[in-house]
Amino acid sequence: MHICELCNGLSTLSEYCKVCGYELSDMGKVSDYFDDYSAYMEIDELKLENGISNDYVQHMCTHFFYCQRCQHEEIKFIKE
Length: 80
Prior knowledge:
Layout: E1 25-29, H1 43-49, E2 60-66, E3 73-79
Antiparallel strand pairs: 1-2, 2-3
């Protein structure tokens, strides 16, 4: 079984904004923002329907990072 250490609070990740250098905030899985109920759906099922190629096969969790300073947004792939 594969799990995302960020989603489960087992690790943290310090990433910095490519625009201003400020530390990015991890806003969670990208799939949590699809609709009102996506946060409650099976993760592997969402991976098959999210339009991101190979995240299911390669066991990647797609996270949304946000810069509080300049509002820059980045997507990061986290290995499960």
